[in-house]
Amino acid sequence: MTAILGHNFIGGARSAAGTLFLQSLDAASGEALPYRFVQATPEEVDAAAEAAASAYPHYRQLPASRRAEFLDTIAAELDALDDDFVAIVCRETALPATRIQGERSRTSGQLRLFAEVLRRGDFHGARIDRARPERKPLPRVDLRQCRIGLGPVAVFGASNFPLAFSTAGGDTAAALAAGCPVVFKAHSGHMATAERVAAAILRAAERTGMPAGVFNMIYGGGVGERLVRHPAIQAVGFTGSLKGGRALCDMAAARAQPIPVFAEMSSINPVVLLPAALKKRGEAVADELSASVVLGCGQFCTNPGLVIGIRSAQFSAFLERFAARMDDQPAQTMLNTGTLASYEKGLAALHAHPRVRHLAGQPQEGRQARPQLFQADVSLLLEGDELLQEEVFGPASVVVEVADHAELKRALHGLHGQLTATLIAEAEDLASFADLVPLLEQKAGRLLLNGYPTGVEVCDAMVHGGPYPATSDARGTSVGTLAIDRFLRPVCYQNYPDAWLPEALKDGNPLGIARLVDGIVTRAAVA
Amino acid sequence: MTAILGHNFIGGARSAAGTLFLQSLDAASGEALPYRFVQATPEEVDAAAEAAASAYPHYRQLPASRRAEFLDTIAAELDALDDDFVAIVCRETALPATRIQGERSRTSGQLRLFAEVLRRGDFHGARIDRARPERKPLPRVDLRQCRIGLGPVAVFGASNFPLAFSTAGGDTAAALAAGCPVVFKAHSGHMATAERVAAAILRAAERTGMPAGVFNMIYGGGVGERLVRHPAIQAVGFTGSLKGGRALCDMAAARAQPIPVFAEMSSINPVVLLPAALKKRGEAVADELSASVVLGCGQFCTNPGLVIGIRSAQFSAFLERFAARMDDQPAQTMLNTGTLASYEKGLAALHAHPRVRHLAGQPQEGRQARPQLFQADVSLLLEGDELLQEEVFGPASVVVEVADHAELKRALHGLHGQLTATLIAEAEDLASFADLVPLLEQKAGRLLLNGYPTGVEVCDAMVHGGPYPATSDARGTSVGTLAIDRFLRPVCYQNYPDAWLPEALKDGNPLGIARLVDGIVTRAAVA
To answer: Which is the catalytic residue, given B44, B92, B264, B390?
Structure first.
């Protein structure tokens, strides 16, 4: 097995100039693992940003096919990591080995999908408006547009997906695909995992001849602030808490040169249960929904944290079974003690609210998280009480009963922005409640029907985004191929000769990509 | 001629609750014109934002063809405005009638181009990933994505294009096309113009059955701040000064819910003169460049404010002729006294700098702007002196002489972000200076060869954007059809039945648009 050095990854080399050390912990026992990491010094943070900046001019200009080869090779290196690697991830996160193996496949699949996007070529956004020398009153000159990478991107991964949303996760893959070198801030919850993955990325970079500095990783608490403020950094990708994400947004906005931040933060993912569906399959919904709430110990951004139904006999029956099922769910170990502490704090706030009632769950105590179910008065949603708006990260959910269709709409209207919004409905519900869809479109990035939001498919059509505070910019997504758009900007070439144009814009269309030529999409060469 | 009431436009009606009045002025004489405007009260600002919010759910869901009809009708109403209208614009801005007539055509053409974009349908960003029930280990569910308007947009127009970048200008057209109602802050430099244009928009809204509140306009100083802070506003478009744009960005970032701002601000638009071109046609370049610097009294965002050449006999000869041509240029009236004062301040700073030399131009005095040419020592660029980085809005330019190719690259490297970067070059220059292109790509949104940046074509391939401080977000453009992207966000539908999907995503492809289906662009129906 590869040794874990604990040194920062800067410009293709390892660096450990600092004197502060961080310890990797066993998530289940809290015991120290035999891995120690050296916090990056301020100079090392700067050096990492500058290494990325040095790599940028060369890296962004590589043919997209070369970057695709790099991503494919990272995927192969990840897939080749041994069982010891899986064991380390499990120890650092308390997640089961099958989950980690599945997440690894998802992560390498994600890298391969971005490689496909690079080969497909639509990310270039190629547009050509040919010269019209004969146009009156003024001739039109030749104008062509395509997109280039923004520059070095700082990426902050999440604790809950130590692979798919971390070191070689979606933000890193999207940035590297876009032609942007990355400086990754290793998550303190899985530093040994991060080191193994970073080493895999560097092996891939070496095998495919990428410039030193294409990927860098730093360890430490607070080093991210200096990173986001570094003038070389041109964009930020973040997955984590509302507090952490908002702090980065504020820092980025306050720079001499403000930069875009895509932060995926807080979502309670409302699930609306419609009457005919409850009548027909209320018991099954109760079973499925409780399984979704506790899946992965509820540690998903898309965990269903709010369940809404209309007062009725079938809703009461559903609620009884849902509470019973939640009572049945075993305690689970969370990602780390910080996550558990924050779960306990969230539960305490719900217990303390006079208009929130505890429905199910053993008293929270010990080292594991116990699933919990609450019922809140609808007035909390109607009055915009902040308690219901921020997610309680963990295996808990809150039920709200509304009086009727009209109150349901008012309650939904009071919600903040969400990653997902789900309807559980039969065909006859669809007929009666069609007016919910436009309302949910305004609230969420992804609308589900008769499914549970905890699965996030990696594909072209996925949106893992949504209005604030789900994310800091509703125009982006951090899962799916559209994620690359966050890190690209358009450049226009006016009257440039073919030899000086990027490949994507040359007359002969050497890349064979679809282009918008004089307003029409075509793969044809330009005469 | 239509009377000019001077009341705010809120929710399809006129409103004048305030007691503060603003006067329209004759730009040439400074005299009061017989038009008085009532500043919006704080309550009226809120009412305008709320009117836009009320219109949003209905307006965004209209078929794109209906919004296209609205834009076409605004264009027709603009084109139908009478000679009195042109006379008012000329009096308020001191711009000549031919320019205003041309700008009107550009503005109505821009609206019609966005109508074409709506009919073409690529703005929907339709993506379909069909279900794969047979996939192992997990089946894939049907996922579809398209884009919707962000919500009400606050638009701040520019003084220098009272039509094309103002009330019915590019930002308004892009927002309305995207399905976003607009609250426009009337520019204090052309309020009577704004009123006539706003009335034309409202006539078009009425003729095409648009919801009240689809377009609103408020008058006043400082009312924009309250507007940007209003919770209903979901995005901002701005064209103007760096100071003004940055203030709006900071306000938007500090909101409880931060919102995106696209601010087009400051650019000095470097023009690099390469040796073979100077040798072959230095005199012609001197003539053309001086004409570009003084065009429209230099009141363009893309005015060439920095001219760079390599020390040589031909550069000295060019400089001599360029200075002579600049000396020949007559004084011109600026848009308003504020613009003139700011021009005078900019010139004074250049005159005061010990390493800046005055090359041409009569002493600045009186009510008109006199064209000026300066030469700055290259050390100002190499050391990043702020004086050269911010534009002097008006008919002035600064020349910098560099020692050689290497110093040229260092000087360009020191530039901030730009809207444009121009090379004047012959084929043999292209061979020797190919390494400038990637450098300029990193600095600017539009690269020109053998042209002058002051013309900005409205088309699919245009980028009127660029890295900060040219704009607040290099990923956008405020001219050209890509401008619509700033105001759209993606929404994903998971497992939705055909009846509930937006038209753009239905199986049969009723809109007949190009869609990305399972990774392939096609207009075919989905089976």
So the answer is: B264
Which residues is A270 bridged to in the sheet? A306
pLDDT digits (tens, 9 = 90+) for B339-376: 999 999 999 999 999 999 999 999 999 999 999 999 99
Cβ contact B445:A147 at 8 Å: no
Give A257's contacts in chain B (Cβ within 8 Å).
417, 467-469
* Closest CA in chain A for residue B483: A490
Give the C-alpha separation, B476 to B464, whole Å.
8
Q: How confident is the model at residue B337 (pLDDT cuts 50, 70, 90)?
A: confident
pLDDT at B527: 84
Q: Where are the domains of chain A?
A: 20-265+477-485, 270-449
- Alpha-carbon distances of A510 from A410, A520, A526, B30, rounded to whole Å: 55, 18, 11, 58
CA distance A130 to B27: 39
CATH 1.20.1250.20 for domain A270-449 = no
Q: Confirm whether A301 is a catalytic residue.
A: yes
pLDDT at residue A1, as a whole number? 53
Indicate yes or no: CB of B449 within 8 angstroms of CB of A500: yes
CA pair distance B272, B421, nearest whole angstrom: 8
Scanning the structure block, which residue is given the tokens 């965002």? B301
- Cβ–Cβ gap B490/A145 under 8 Å: no
Give me the percent of chain A exceeding a pLDDT of 90.
96
Q: Which helix (H) or strand (E) element contains residue A61?
A: helix A42-61
* pLDDT score at A142: 98
Domain A20-265+477-485 falls in which CATH fold? Aldehyde Dehydrogenase; Chain A, domain 1 (3.40.605)
- Chain B residues with beta carbon closer than 8 angstroms to that of A482: 125, 127, 145, 490
Model pTM? 0.97
List, for residues B174-198, the tens digit of each pLDDT value: 999 999 999 999 999 999 999 999 9
Q: Are A253 and B249 an interchain contact pair (Cβ–Cβ within 8 Å)?
A: yes
> Considering only CA atoms, which of A303, A321, A307, A322 is closest in space to residue A395?
A303
Quote the CA–CA distance of B208 and B230 in Å, as a whole number: 28
Contact at CB, A451 and B122, closer than 8 angstroms: no
DSSP state of B449: E
- What distance in Å separates the CA atoms of residue B227 and residue A419, rounded to the nearest whole number? 27
Number of H helices, E strands in chain A: 16, 23
pLDDT digits (tens, 9 = 90+) for B250-300: 999 999 999 999 999 999 999 999 999 999 999 999 999 999 999 999 999
Nearest to A234 by CA among B473, B62, B362, B75: B473
Which has the closest alpha carbon to A270: A445, A132, A426? A445
B353: which 2 tokens? 């700098």
- How many angstroms separate the Cα of A168 from the Cα of each of A75, A104, A377? 9, 10, 42
- Do A144 and B461 make contact, defined as CB atoms within 8 angstroms? yes
Q: A156 CA to chain B: closest CA distance, Å?
A: 20
Using an 8 Å CB-CB cutoff, list chain A residues near B384.
none
- Residue A519 has its nearest CB partner, among B120, B472, B495, at B120
Residues of chain A with C-beta less than 8 angstroms from the C-beta of B61: 438
Distance CA A66, CA B427 (A): 30
B180 among known catalytic residues: no
SS3 B93: helix
- Cβ of A447 within 8 Å of Cβ of B494? The answer is yes
Quote the pLDDT of residue B3: 85
The mean predicted confidence, pLDDT, of chain B is: 96
Return the closest-CA partner of residue B3 out of B189, B199, B220, B218: B199
**Closest CB from A258, A461, A490 relative to B144:** A461
Chain B nearest-CA residue for A426: B497
Contact B462, B456 (CB under 8 A): yes
- CB pairs A-B closer than 8 Å: 207
